[in-house]
Amino acid sequence: MSQMQEENCELIENFCRDLLYGRRFSENTVKAYRADLYRFNNWQHSESILDGFTLNELRGFLRHEASRELDSKSLAREVSSLRTFGNWMLETERLPSNPAKLIAMPKTPARLPGFLSVREVQQVIDSYDVSSILGIRNRAIVDLLYGAGLRASESVSVLLAGLNLQTREIQVIGKGNRERIVPLPELTCRSLQSWIDSRSELAVDSTADPGTVFISIHGRKLDPRDIRRIVACGVKKAARAAGASPHTFRHSFATHLLDNGADLRAVQDMLGHATLSTTQVYTHLTMERLRKTYRKAHPRGKE
Fold it and tell me: Is 64 a catalytic residue?
């Protein structure tokens, strides 16, 4: 590898470190952005990625990516990667402008999130064997995903200090390091209390206790992959919930709130969405369910 290529790689790695530790981007997002930028670096025709970061090169790279038959969602993410990288180089005075801003974002088809019925959610929650300490923990995790609408990454970072079972509230740090307080239903509080009462059996070394609500069998902090495995285990035992992921419980949380008349902005606050438009996808989901019910039940629904 030439010295210039080493400098290009170091530039990309500095950018990724800033996203991860400075701007609190998720690990998955940073991983995807890193891969996109390395592909661009390997494709562009200049030795220096700074010299190659031009509008013509960026458009040529995206045409090349489109020729690989990537879907519009993947192409849109690549544009986002390049725009964010260009903004960072502009902010750090490595470039005088960001040509990636001039590239139009590919249109992606709107995709409604999947969700479970109340009965299906309960079937998954009830699938965990609470005669074991891990079963108690796993049930509490899924109960919290649904009861508070948390992301998997948020559930592993919730602190004991941020959980108040007396007032039924939990403090959550979400995307962009934004903090929110989410109310908890009584049933979720019961599951959490059962876990908290047993947690000390795993946290035997108080000096190594991460202070998070959920910990592993070895007393360490869980990561989102652990949450996905825990959910997959419950879903496997609950046939009606086949294919559900941790995020499915978040979608179900929002959908059930709106179905029962919750205010859209209140749901936005509980989900931690930065914009109302992100939350509005659930209103489309609810309306589609209403349309199906209408077509099925109304005398003129099939006309």
Answer: no
Q: Give the per-residue pLDDT at 243.
A: 78
pTM equals 0.64
Domain count, the chain: 2
**Residue 23 is among the residues annotated as catalytic for this protein:** no
Q: What's the CA gap between 158 and 141, in Å, rounded? A: 11
Active site residue 247: yes
Residues 94, 100, 105, CA angle at the centre, nearest 5°? 155
- Out of 77, 83, 199, 250, the active site residue is 250
Instruction: Report whether pLDDT(75) > 70.
Output: yes
Name the pLDDT band for 296 (thresholds 50, 70, 90). Answer: low
Domain shared by 141 and 237, yes or no: yes
In 3D space, the residue among 6, 98, 88 whose CA is nearest the CA of residue 54 turns out to be: 98
250 lies in which domain range? Answer: 118-296
Same-domain pairing of 284 and 142? yes
The pLDDT value given to residue 287: 64
